[in-house]
Amino acid sequence: MLKIGLCDDEECHRIQISGMLKKALELKHTMYSIFQYQNGEDLLQSKLEMNLYFLDIGMDKLSGIETAKKIRALNKEAIIIFITALKEYVFEAFDVRAFHYILKPISEEKLRNVLYSALAQIDETDNFILAKTISQCTKIFVKDILYIESQLRKIKIHTTYDVIEYYHKLSDIEDELKNFNFFKCHRSYIVNLKYVRSYDNVFITLKNDEKIYISKYKLSDFSKAFMYYLKSLEQ
Q1: What is the pLDDT along the chain (235 residues), one digit of tens a residue?
Q2: The domain containing residue 32 runs over which residues?
Q3: Which residue from 37, 44, 128, 164 could staple onto 7, CB 3.0 to 4.6 Å apart?
Q4: Contact, 1 vs 89, CB < 8 A?
Q5: What are the CA-CA distances from residue 1 to residues 25, 50, 113 (Å)?
Q6: CATH label of the domain that carries residue 187
Q7: 119/134 same-domain check
């Protein structure tokens, strides 16, 4: 169940934003609860831990920025999005690792795109695959996977912290990761677009400087997928 905290001191704005969020979430068939608050104090006093916060900035007593700082002190993983008419606080939003900064008047399309990008990040944070061997089962979070390599019948999952090896089919892993930002760039490799730094006609270079092969037959589709991924980050 997705939990959303919506905090704005103007009821008309809460009603408008809540309506837009409900419409977008129902299109995704997402189970959710939206909790509305008229100020930061009420939100913090509720002690409910949300996955996603939409905060106005210009509120009485406790501003949206101050509210976000208190949220971040308690919940480092929560996604915080500011919706405000105040342009001048955009740099302060970086201090609390805000996911996005939406200016009023609100565009329904803009809000929907930002929401969907946030949902993708939440899914990535919570989701995992299981690497099963005869003696053990290892839980690997999707967000930690750099790329997956196939050598004969063995799979090597290269993560940010280790390499996990086990017997499995690359096609089955590809299917498990189809809803995330992964691309099969070669018959032996699946790469996480999140960690791609650059590419040329032969190699994809990752942010940790590792290089993996890209098939010439996959180059065009990979280029499109990577550009689409980068564009999604800007929304």
Answers
A1: 789 999 999 999 999 999 999 999 998 878 899 999 999 999 999 988 898 999 999 888 899 999 999 999 888 888 999 998 888 888 888 888 899 999 999 999 999 999 988 887 776 666 788 898 888 888 898 889 999 999 988 999 999 999 999 999 999 999 888 878 899 999 999 999 999 999 999 999 999 999 999 999 999 999 999 998 887 665 5
A2: 2-125
A3: 37
A4: no
A5: 12, 10, 20
A6: 2.40.50.1020
A7: no
